[in-house]
Amino acid sequence: MLKLSRYVLHDIVRSKVILAYTLFLLTISVTLFQMEDNPSKALMSLLNIVLIVVPLVSMVFATIHYYNSYEFIELMLSQPVSRTRILMSEYLGTAASLSASFLVGVGVPVLLFNLDEVGLALITTGTALTFIFTSLAFYASVLARDKARGIGVALMLWFYFALIYDGLVLTILFAFSDYPLEQLTLALSSLNPVDLGRIFLMLKMDVSALMGYTGATYKDFFGSSFGALYSLGILLLWATIPLWLAVRSFNKKDL
Amino acid sequence: MKRLSCILLSLLCLQAHAHTLTVGKGQPFATIRNAIAAAKPGDTVLVKKGTYYVNNILVTKPITLLGENMPLLHGADKYEIFTVSGNRITIKGFQLTNSGYSAMNDYAAIKVVDATNVVIEGNKIYRAYFGIHMANASNCTIRNNYLFGLTKTEQTTGNGIHLWKCNNMLVEKNEVHAHRDGIYFEFVTHSLVRNNYSEGNIRYGLHFMFSNDDQYFGNTFINNGAGVAVMYSKKVMMHRNRFLNNWGPAAYGLLLKEISDSKIEGNRFYKNTVGIQMESTSRIAASNNRFEENGWAAKVAASSMDNSFTNNNFQGNTFDIGTNGSVVLNTFNNNYWDKYEGYDRNKDGRGDVPYHPVSMYSTIIESNPNTLMLLRSFMVALLDKAEKALPSLTPENLKDDQPLLKALKL
């Protein structure tokens, strides 16, 4: 499996797209840190990039990569290697290369300019989001037969998590505004990895004071070590469940 | 001329009659209490350096109590240290510690009741329930004192400098830490609070209740539960104060509730959750203030009217103005807003299109606080942009018609 993953990784690195992505992240991070005299403010801006760009690139790149290596997958299938193994190697190769470029592009500048709890949380969240959205992309591509539809589904999913979901949350919060909603908002935030990552990070920053009463409920929850474990656990579930579904349907699929 | 020289002469006579009674080891008086008992009006009781265990020293004569090299008066956690009542009394240069705590009485290190022309100066007060407590006093001065409280809860800690039913008071250059309210005014009129420093108090740095015609300027309020609260008062002038780092879920820089006819000028609000919170206020003019990096620069409740914001700088605040209704009876003019995106074609330094300081999201939060879980999400940024282009939900009349393009030099 590792050998296969290494081939995948090699293939991806050669394609230069990943290099461009790394450079893009690196440029943005370094520029932000140099533009703002206060590193924690730069981190705030970086948070937005991480929450929007990382999922988008992970999804689109993973989908395109899956379809581009379709022939390679077919070739591998003719060898005595199990299907689970093939898909897992593809996944690990893609996710590893994407998170490597995230770690170089964002992780290194953060470590250099603002190494503290918030910085580390940002790196963790970004890496987790890379793994999560790669796994969602794999599930989408396994389900959709042709490339155009696959990319369409991936984009729709990104759109849903980045934007539509928050709109729905807003609607729900207004529709039930007469009820105590603190627990519900906690639950709602777990249903979207982007939101979960954002709240998890924001509670580590001092803007959390703006959140008033709601923020206090969050802080009690996410601030505790149980809360940190909980959010990491949920993020892990978000990465493993779509992947498991993808493997399951890949195994049954008539290729 | 004759009368003047007569007065001078009599003053000299008084001076000649004034004695100094020295207290300390190997001195004429062993205890402060004895010295005070022996003192005549106008005398000075000089206390030498040392530690004295004392309670309830009653001072009712017009005398001066002077500490040499900061003698330490220890209250053994019981009662008060000084209880002062009368006219022309000065207490200067002492260290006071461990006065008593009681849930029934407001024990203070120095308590002043029914007094005039009292001067409390240059003392250091530690671990006191109330630091300096004045009731029914006038023309008194509290200057250059340093107070550090008990750092307990709101109920078990008293106020640093507590003034009740006083007039013509001067509170200046004091430093208060870890009390409930740093400086507390209730029914205090025509008084002046200046150049004080109030840090890390549990509730407010400075608190006004029912206190009219007062001024405070040049004070610094850092990291208190809330910087300053002015409630149910009239004609309070607030100049050149600094409200810094009053940051927390329920913190304000300046909380105004039911106050009117006041001025807020030349202050700096930096890193407060809410710079100024206004509830049911009227006729307050805020000008030449700097609002920097606050959560909300100002929250103006719809119950406030005829307030004005002119010539202020708003920079780096998460939200500029918050409000809780669509009625706008306040004016915003000629301010500098760093979020302004308009243009200035005739180059007069003022933008040609009005600036709407209330963002869509801040309106949403006001009506439904739970939506704060969406703070800084992509969706909120889009909503704000859309609302900027076509205002529909935000109060349309809350706007600055002539926003400045360059920050004022304040």
Automatic annotation (TrEMBL), chain A:
Annotated GO MF terms: ABC-type transporter activity
Presence of the UniProt keyword Aminoacyl-tRNA synthetase in the record: no
A Pfam cross-reference name: ABC2_membrane_2
Keywords of the record: Membrane, Transmembrane, Transmembrane helix
One GO CC term on file: plasma membrane
Transmembrane segments: 12-33, 45-67, 88-112, 118-139, 151-176, 228-247
Top-rank lineage group of the source organism: Bacteria
Protein's recorded name: Cu-processing system permease protein
The species this protein was found in: Cnuella takakiae
Organism ancestry: Bacteria, Pseudomonadati, Bacteroidota, Chitinophagia, Chitinophagales
From TrEMBL, chain B:
InterPro entries: NosD_copper_fam (IPR026464), NosD_dom (IPR007742), Para_beta_helix_rpt-2 (IPR022441), PbH1 (IPR006626), Pectin_lyas_fold (IPR012334), Pectin_lyase_fold/virulence (IPR011050), SCF-Subunits/Alg-Epimerases (IPR051550)
Gene3D superfamilies assigned to the protein according to its UniProt record, in alphabetical order: Single-stranded right-handed beta-helix, Pectin lyase-like (2.160.20.10)
UniProt-listed Pfam families: NosD (PF05048)
Signal peptide start-end: 1-18
Keywords: Repeat, Signal, Ubl conjugation pathway
Pathway: Protein modification; protein ubiquitination
Domain (Periplasmic copper-binding protein NosD beta helix): residue spans on this chain: 156-342
Superkingdom of the source species: Bacteria
Name by which UniProt lists this protein: Nitrous oxidase accessory protein
Record organism: Cnuella takakiae
